[in-house]
Design goal:
Blueprint lengths: L10 H20 L13 H12 L9 H4 L2 H16 L1 H11 L6 H11 L7 H31 L2 H14 L19 H16 L1 H13 L10 H25 L11 H14 L15 H13 L12 H15 L6 E2 L2 E2 L2 H28 L4 H12 L14 H16 L1 H8 L20
Helix pairs in contact: 1-2, 1-4, 1-6, 2-4, 2-17, 4-8, 5-7, 7-8, 7-9, 8-9, 9-12, 10-11, 11-12, 11-13, 13-16, 14-15, 15-16, 15-17, 16-17, 17-18
Amino acid sequence: MRGKRGAALSTTQIILLSFLAVILLGSLLLALPISAADGVSVAYVDALFTATTATCVTGLVTLPTVTAWSIFGQAVILLLIQIGGLGVITVLSGLMMALHRKMGLGDRLLLQDAFNLNTLSGLTEFLRKVICGTLVIEGIGALLYMMVFVPEYGVRGIWISVFTAVSAFCNAGIDILAENSLCDYVFHPLINAVTCLLIVLGGIGYIVWWDVVRVLRERPKRPFRHLTLHSKIAILATLVLIFAGALAIFVLEYNNPLTMQEYTLPQRIGASLFQSVTTRTAGFATLPQQDLTNGTALVSMLLMFIGGSPVGTAGGIKTVTVVVLIASAIATVKGRDEVTLLHRNLSKQALRKATAVTVLSFGIAFLCALLLSVVTDAGLLDVLYESVSAVATVGLTRGLTPLLNTAGKLTVIATMYLGRVGPISLAIALNTKKESGNSIKNPTEEISVG
């Protein structure tokens, strides 16, 4: 997609700039007096921080969403969450489709890159399914929330239900209930169940959705066997991480007097399960994160860093990435030339990309932690928690976010943006050099590793 002089932007650059444009536009709207609850404009850095956390579906906030913003401001935030969850290019492509405008090859390439797909085949139909499926699931979630919030808050409960449903499905973790997130509903079975379900459905990835639907229609007997390798990995990894994480949190928090010591056994199980699910880049909290044991905080950081699955609303390095790395490590230890998963060989490109995503994401998290350590006097665990939460676009904090100074806010803003657009995309966008097809091959030399 380059012009005669090579000045045209690549699809990756367009995607990165589109996110940036939405963030800046959102920040200008949130900086208006009409967006503030008291009618007085908030500081621009807070407006920028809020626009970034909403568009990047992170959830870290410097100002309480429920008290700092007016209905107009909350509506702007909700719109940014929806755009960020679906993706700017997806929303624009959906509008083109609604206006019956034909998508050209450039538009399709752009959409293909936005979804990280390997083919242009059936792209328009895939887009239609994604948008319709998203709206349907969010609508059902909102209706279920209304069963609780309307009796409790009256008419305002409708707005709360819609906002929470969209935020949960988009894995944003921003709510307009209270300053302590969902801690007041830690024992509420419906709120917990609906929120967890929305988080998982948004984070599992659109590819898995339609693969499951396809198999249930065509081969309902033993459906798991007929899923694609991607879907099998995403589903199995999601289940393992959720239940293994819940078990670890249950054990580590069982006798913690600040969290679950006084809970009954079912309450402990429910709270542990919710903590495990929400760390998969959702950001809602039913337990105060600063009260968790150090062990639980470490487990939560690992779950946050891994995140959800590709081509969904979740962040992190993704479940499939981690499984590919583990499979590669096992193959290396066993001396195998091919990396195999579920009786399928993985491509070298997948291995290289998984390694690059993990290394670059770790590097961004480390740099964020280093900068926050310099500009704040917070404890190391709080800084690490904040950094991983930002780069994985999770939104959980141990109380550090509202205390950040301007330098700290700008650091987290940059980290959230990099975490959302992806380190690989950023590297590709910034790399303007093209490898020549006739480049000289360098000689190979063995080195010692490990």
